[in-house]
Each structure stands twice: as C-alpha cells, then as structure tokens.
Amino acid sequence: MSGPVTYELRENIGIITVNNPPVNALSQAVRAGLSECLKEALNDSSAEAVIVTGGGRTFMAGADISEFGKPTMDPDLNSVIFEYEDSNKPTIAALHGTPLGGGLEVSMGCQYRVANSKTLLGLPEVKLGLLPGAGGTQRLPRLVGPELALEMITSGNPIPAEKAMEEGLVSEIYNNVSHEELIDNAIIFAKKILTNNTHPKSRERTEKISNISPDIFDNAIKKITPRLRGRKGPLRCIEAVRGAVDLNFEEGIKNERDLFKLCHDSDESEALIHSFFSERMANKIPGMDKDTPLRPINKAVVIGCGTMGGGIAMSFVNSGIPVSIIETTSEFLDKGMNIIKNNYAATVSKGRLSQKNMDKRMSLLTPTLDWDVIKEADIVIEAVFEEMEIKKEIFTKIDNLAKEGAILASNTSTLDIDEIADATNRPEEVVGTHFFSPANVMKLLEIVRGSRTKLDILATLMSLAKKIKKVGIIAGNCDGFVGNRMFHQYVMQAHLLVEEGATPEQVDSVAENWGWAMGPFAVNDLAGNDVGWLIRKRHKAENYYEGKKYASDVADRLCELGRFGQKAGKGFYKYDPKTRKRESDPEVHKIIEDVRREKGVNPREISDDEILSRLHGALINEGTRILEEGHAFRASDIDVCYVNGYGFAAHRGGPMWQADKIGVNKVAKEINNHRNADNLSWPESKLINQLEESNGKLSEFIPDTSNPSKRS
Ligand code: 3H9
Q1: Residue 279: CB within 6 Å of ligand 1?
Q2: Nearest C-alpha to atom 47 of ligand 1 is from which residue?
Q3: Is any atom of ligand 1 closer than 6 Å to the C-beta of 259?
Q4: What would the pLDDT profile of 335-353 be if each residue is shown by its tens digit?
Q5: Residue-level pLDDT at 542
Q6: Strand positions, DSSP E, 96-213
Q7: Cα-based angle 437, 442, 447 (whole degrees, multiple of 5)
Q8: For 232-251, how does the pLDDT look when each residue is reduced to its tens digit (9 = 90+)?
Q9: Of 35, 299, 537, 620, which one has the fewest beta carbons inside 10 Å?
C-alpha cells in the first residue's frame, strides 16, 4: 500500500515499517497505516508473527505534536495500540533511535520489544506539559515497576537500551547494528518466540505492580514539589501512575485519559509546545537556502583561559571537539587548566562523570602559548577582557594566521562586533558567540550577527550550538544584544519599584511565585553587584546618564559597603554561610529608606499586579523595539533566549508569548500608562503601538532583517 506505513513479508514474518520523516511522528496517516498494515499481516496466511519498525533514523518518536490543539482524527492512538496488543499473531517492536512518547507506547502495546543497543527509550510528554496519553502510564509500571516508571514519566528523560533490558522493558539488544541487521535479528527473535505457548500482553502483567507501598507516590510528590514553579503536569503524571497500582487497567486508562485531557487543555502545555517548536524554529535563518552546506567544525581554538574561556573550552571537549587554549603566560595557562581539572574532578566525585570520561575530555584539551595552532582551527573563539583595543589587536593577529573558511568569533557580551570585524580583512567571517557564565553549564548561546557576517556562519553556529548541547539564538549587533538589552530594562524597573515603595523581598517573591527561577534582586546578588557598579561608574564618567533615569542609587550604596552579593555573603540580602540561603537584612532596608528620603520619594504601597506589569512590560517593550529594529529574526527567538538563559518559566512560554497571550492591546495600554507616569524609563516602541492599532500579534510580525543595521 502507499502512504507512510508499508507491509512486506520476509521469511514468513510480516514487517510493518513506518516512513514519516524526520522522526516518524504518529500523525493520523501513520496511525491509520499502522492499523491497515496490521490487518494485512493478520490476513496474510504466510505471516506467522508481525514486526513493527521505523524507517530512517528512528522508531516513532511520539505523537505528532503539531496535531495537538486541533480536532482529533480517527483512528486514535489508543485503539491502534489495543489492536497490536490483542493481535492473535505475536507482535514485536524492533526499536532504534528514539522511541519516545506515543512511539514507546506503541511498542509497549506489542507483545515483545527488541532494540539496537544505541536506542534511547522514554516518555518525554511531561516536557510538553502532558502525560503519556496512550496507555504509557499504565503499561510502563507493569513492565518496569512503578518506581522507575515514575522517574521516567516525571522527568521525561529517556533510558538507554541496556538499562531497558535490565529492567524488563526490552527482551534483547543487538550491539550497534544497522537497521537491516536489526530486522534480521528481530526475525530470528520472532521465530524463537513462535514456540511460546502464550505471548505476554503488557496490560495483563501484574507482578511488578502488586504490594506497592503508597509511600513511593508521596515521596515522588515531595521530590518534585520544590521544582514545580507553578506547574501541574508533573503532579498529574504521578496521579496517572498511581492509577496503575490502585485501579484495574480499564479504570487506570480512563483515569489517564481524564488527566491527559486536563494537561492537553492547559496553558502550561500550550506554552511548552510553543517552546519546543520555537527552539527548532530558531535554527531557520531567513534568506538562507536550507541546502547550503555547513562548515565542518572539527578543531577549535579558544583564546583566553579565564572563567569564560575555560568554560567554553569545556563545552567543546564535552562534545568530543578538540580544543587548543591559548594564553599569554604559562602561569595563566596552568591556573586556567587547574580550574578546569578541578571542575571535572568535582563532577567525578559527585558520581556524575566517570574518571575515564574525565581523562578523555582532558586529553582533548591542549594548553599552549603558541598562536600557530590557529592555522589548523575551524573556529577561533576569543574570550579575553572586554576591552575593544585588546580585542582588535587579537583579531588582527587571528586574521593573519587563520585558514580560509575559519570562523572568527568573539565572546564579547557588550562590544560592537562590526568594529571588531573591522580589525580583520575578512569582516564577513567574524561573528559574536556570547556564552553565559558558567559557560560549561549555561544553556543559552547568543550568536551575534555583525552587519556583514555570512549567513552560512550563522547556520553553522546554530548547528554547533546543538552539538555542544546549547540552545542557540541569533541576535543583532545592538547594545546588550537581545538578552541583556531586555534584562537591563527589567532590572531597572525592579530597582525603581523599590525606590517607590516595594521591597526587594516583595519584588523577588512576586517574580518567583509567577514562575521565574529567581527574582531580579536575587539574580543581582548571584551575578555580583560589583559588575554593574563598575559599568555604571564608567558610564557616569562618560555622562551617559544625562537625560536618562538613574535607578541604581541603592545598588551603589550596597557596593560602597562591599555588599557585592552571594560571593561577599551579603548584597540585597544576607546569606547563611553554610546553606547559602538568603535572608532579609534590616541594613538594606535602612539604605533603601535613606535613598528614598534623599531623593524626596514618598513611598507608597505597590501592588503585586503593578510589579508584574512593570517587570514584564519592560521586557516586552524592549523586545518589540528589538524586533522593529530587525535585531531578532522573530518573536519566538526572544522567548527561547529568556527561557534558556534568564530563568523565565518555560511553562509560561516567554515574554513575547505572554504578550500575545494577554493580548498586545492590553499590554500596550499598560506600557503607555507606565510611560505617562515616567517617560524617562519607558523608551517608545512604535511596533507595539502599531500592533495595538491593528489588533496584531507579535508572533505574526516578520521583522526586516535583510539588511542588519549597524549597532544601535
Ligand atoms: C505524545 O507522544 C503523546 C502521547 O503520549 C499520547 C497521544 C494521545 N511531532 O528535535 P529535532 C520535528 S507527545 C512533530 O531537531 P533531533 C521537529 O519539529 C510526543 N514534529 O531532531 C523538527 O522539525 P523541523 C512525545 C516533531 O534529531 C524535526 O522533527 N514525543 C516531533 O535533534 C527534527 O527535530 C516527544 O516529545 C513530533 N513528536 O531530535 C519527542 N518530534 O525540522 C519530541 C520532532 O521542521 N522530539 N519533530 O524543525 C524530540 O525530542 C526530538 O525531536 C528527537 C529528535 C529526540 C525525536
């Protein structure tokens, strides 16, 4: 038959293959094809057993996420799975790649599972604000026991094939075989099990769900609660798995269905699905042909072995890319390499990395004083002080050494990429790679596009970001790029709110209760208040604040007292030296009162709603200015930036998503009201006013990025 699922007979075994690239998602056509092909196999008198497999890179990686939120189309996945489970010829799932979500659920409906040893098996629905809705919460506990099922379903993280075999989820694994060999082995397996008297249906298994202590569910809730930040999905996952133990299968499935519907209809799931597609959309570079070849990145050079350089180098070697690190003196090199070594050793001692892997990673790092290593590099990343003159000097030197086609990148967090590029004879090969500290941990990578940077470099770096386990976005070459430019406005509002009458505690708890990982003052204390202080002192000397709002008097006072934040044990809060827990500090409140008095501010009570409106309004206002200037390709890239780099709750989608959700009209009105009250701290966004008039959405706005303006 034609369509995405095909049937063939091999050695008296029916083989059903799904071909729905790229990941064999279970679209309506696939579900229908699975059902049709099973009928064909059952009607084929020569077929003694049925193998179901995925063509291409993976077994089915789940339901087709793009169908969520649309009217459901028959057949539904549950009924297809029952057909496989109730088949009177044995059904065997031959797994490779990533059998995830609905894909793993199909395989658990089969009576047996065999797998390539490299397979990763999981139920990641929780990451989309969902729970496994095609029997996964009922069959997985029956196959592996409720404890592991809870762990897999609430974390969404997959397990490797070897573990799956130990736990009874798969019967056989084949060492790193080709797909052809996987099917050959599955056929041998099928012939073997044909002699069995009965074939186990997952739903009839009870041995692993009997005599289960209810404590495991209470413990799972306890473990997950501190990480929820207002999410409901993970708790519903636990409730569904509890049903596998407390209810019979039919009731458990009904319970799962009801809970799935609650999840499916939630804002949480809508926002997380937005985040999933936004991260993938961020890879698409407007104006670039998708077949344009990417540049190979097999060797990297990092210049500078300080905190940033070391962290960047670690990110590369963690993904198997060898790195040479250049420093000016052997003392600096030794110091930097020791920090890296200690960092890895700490991970080994916590059991999160094997000594063998640590040794492998260290062996990929080459510390050197010799700049000639640049000649071999596919990418050179400069990570030295934020000093334009030093950077320019370094880029001229790199330009003289680097081979043709090498990418010349700067890790600047503030400086003008175009000016740095001017120091070379190949400005079109120069780009910013703004890693966040600590670079080996933080997920976000802002790829900063200079006015001449070639598009294939941007695409290569987006692909590299994925390889080194970062989430990349392309940002324009404006002051603060995307993330910090918006954050500056957000923090300014936080500080103004405190001057006007709020406390840091109130602002932080409002933000955190809403879902931020940390409130703005807690973030300031974590990052170090001295960082901003130094910049402000420089700005003051340059008369930067003339005609602008100055919101940092309290922060300045704190810094004058050495209250640099967590590292000093005190900042906007004081910190318990052992637990590092923050506590209110009357000294800070006194400083706030002094500043208010000196500035003639009569403090007023500030509502939580006003706090949220101003914090988020500041982000949205600046985000729309970035879009209208063409410094981001699309609103969703800004969301990706905020969710992955700034602790914006993923289940809230991102600031631009929130603006569309609340309604741009409403947000624009609030912003205009704030501007009327204080026009100095609310720069004008033409775009938001246009969208207010046209009743438009930020997600539908296509910025003009064809000709990126020079720095603005
Ligand atoms: C579920 O199963 C619910 C059931 O329990 C119950 C139902 C009743 N659907 O990530 P990549 C696209 S919920 C549609 O770059 P990789 C993706 O958008 C589902 N599209 O590849 C991208 O498109 P484009 C549970 C999907 O190799 C392209 O495929 N399953 C889906 O780095 C390549 O994606 C999951 O949550 C999908 N399910 O990683 C698994 N998956 O090229 C979600 C991918 O246009 N998927 N696409 O940008 C993943 O985790 C990764 O995609 C995977 C491959 C690991 C599979």
Answers
A1: no
A2: 23
A3: no
A4: 999 999 999 999 999 999 9
A5: 86
A6: 112-116, 120-121, 159-160, 172-174
A7: 85
A8: 999 999 999 999 999 999 99
A9: 537
Read off the pLDDT of each residue in 484-503 and give the average, rounded to a whole number: 97
Could you tell me if 494 and 615 are in contact, meaning their C-beta atoms sit under 8 angstroms apart?
yes
Whole-number pLDDT of residue 589: 98
Buried b (16+ CB within 10 A) or exposed e, 104-130: bbbbbbbbbbbbbebbbbbbbbbbbbb
Q: What's the rounded Cα separation, in Å, for the pair 438 and 310?
A: 9
Cβ–Cβ under 8 Å, residues 635 and 658: no
What are the E-state strand segments in 400-482? 407-410, 430-435, 444-449, 471-476
Burial classification of residue 144, based on how many CB atoms lie within 10 Å of its CB (0-12 exposed, 13-18 middle, 19 or more buried): buried
Both tokens of 347, joined, read 């991970």
Confidence band, pLDDT 50/70/90 cuts, at residue 712: low
> How far does the centroid of ligand 1 lie from the alpha carbon of residue 58, in Å?
11
Query: What mean pLDDT is predicted for residues 8-14?
Result: 97
Q: pLDDT tens, 55-82?
A: 999 999 999 999 998 888 999 999 999 9
User: Residue 553 and residue 495: Cα distance in Å, rounded?
Assistant: 9
The 8-class DSSP code of residue 278 comes to H
In angstroms, the Cα distances linking 280 to 122, 275, 553, 640 are: 20, 9, 42, 10
Ligand 1 atom 27, closest CA: 23
Residue 80 CB less than 6 A away from ligand 1: no
CB 628 within 8 A of CB 663: no
3-state secondary structure of 325: strand
What's the pLDDT at 539?
A: 85
Q: What pLDDT is recorded for position 290?
A: 81
Q: Alpha-carbon distance 686 to 119, whole Å?
A: 50
**Which amino acid, residue 49?**
A
Is the predicted pLDDT of residue 1 greater than 60, yes or no?
A: no
Burial class (CB in 10 A: 0-12, 13-18, 19+), 431: buried
Return the ligand 1 atom nearest residue 120 CA: 55
Q: Which atom of ligand 1 is nearest to the CA of 102?
A: 2
Which residue's alpha carbon is nearest to atom 56 within ligand 1? 61
Q: What is the pLDDT of residues 181-208, one digit of tens each?
A: 999 999 999 999 999 989 999 999 999 9
Residues labelled as active-site residues: 105, 125
Residue 708: what pLDDT?
64
For residue 469, which amino acid is it? K
Q: How many helices (H) and strands (E) does the chain have?
A: 28, 18
Place of tokens 């990349």: 472
